[in-house]
Amino acid sequence: MNTKSTKHKPVVTTPSEREIRIERIFDAPRERVWKAMTDATLLAQWWGRGNKLEIERYEPKRGGHWRMVEHTPEGPQGFEGRFREVTPPERVVQTFEWDGMPGHVVIETMTLEDLGDGRTKLVNVSLFHTPEERDGMLHSGMADGVEQSYAALDEVLHKLAS
Amino acid sequence: MVQYQEQLDRSFTALSDPTRRAILQRLGRSDASISDLADRFAMTLTGLKKHVQVLEDAGLVTTEKVGRVRHCRLGPQRLEHVTKWIATYQQMLEQRLDSLEAFLERTKGMP
Q1: Cβ distance A10 to A24 under 8 Å?
Q2: I want to staple A149 with a disulfide (CB 3.0 to 4.6 A). Which of A115, A158, B16, B55 is the partner?
Q3: CA of B39 to nearest chain A CA: how many angstroms apart?
């Protein structure tokens, strides 16, 4: 496992072959962080990374869709997905897809932990699925190939994190 | 963008095999002929050619026939397009978290 951390920056690790885990502590109580992450009005104020954000769809419940368009200096960028789990105030599981890479779905699991001192720890785990990996899993006997794909991706992730 | 994706898909396919990854590592040290590689990996020429073909289709390896010998080297594509997508994703995620932190900071004490 590779670990990269500095004083204020998030802790980024690659816990398995196809995951990126980012851990970050916010100086705010869990309820506030939860609200900022799941209330569309608040979300609109930060999710765009300083770019104008259009929330086209936001249904934070199991099976609900979300779609946002970020107006970056390079042009509009669309992002979308579906919610798999929404458990206030601690856990959201959603799929994430970028218009620029359609079909490359990332599953994001965001967990909020109340640190008990007015601070909150956010853990975001992103699970990468490539079409090969998904297709491979649909065919029995392809498990080895899938494992190898993950191993290949792991090398890439490790290179990235080091 | 579609082309970029097909390229990415081919790269993942090419990388899904340990022998092909080993071939890339070997070529990372120096160019080699098909028969050098076949010896190195204790494979038949036919078997090795199939692997090289997959790597060539993915643009990860280039081959050139000189006389009766086929030489292999890395390129023209490197792994950049694979790493690029993951790097872009990670960068966006980190920027969003920075942005969330700034938002929580500036809305402190608000209901």
Answers
A1: yes
A2: B16
A3: 23
The CATH number of the domain where B57 resides is what? 1.10.10.10
Structural domain that includes position B98: 79-111
Q: How many CB atoms lie within 10 A of CB A30?
A: 21
Q: What is the pLDDT of residues B33-90, one digit of tens each?
A: 999 999 988 999 999 999 999 999 888 889 999 898 999 988 776 555 555 666 678 7
- H or E element that contains A131: helix A131-138
Partners of residue A46 in chain B, C-beta under 8 Å:
96, 99-100, 102-103
Q: A45 in helix, strand or coil?
A: coil
Cβ A98 vs Cβ A128: under 8 Å = no
Q: Are residues B35 and B53 in the same domain?
A: yes
Closest chain B CA to residue A103? B5
Per residue in A89-116, pLDDT (tens digit) is: 999 999 998 887 777 788 999 999 999 9
Q: Which residue has the tokens 């078997």?
A: B47
Domain count, chain B: 2
Task: Round to whole Å and give the CA distance between A62 and A98.
Answer: 20
> What is the per-residue pLDDT across A117-126, written as a single tens digit (0 to 9) for each?
999 999 999 8
Same domain, B24 and B50: yes
- Placement of tokens 């900022």 in the chain: A36
Quick count: other Cβ atoms within 10 Å of Cβ A133? Answer: 20
Q: Does pLDDT of A141 surpass 90? A: no
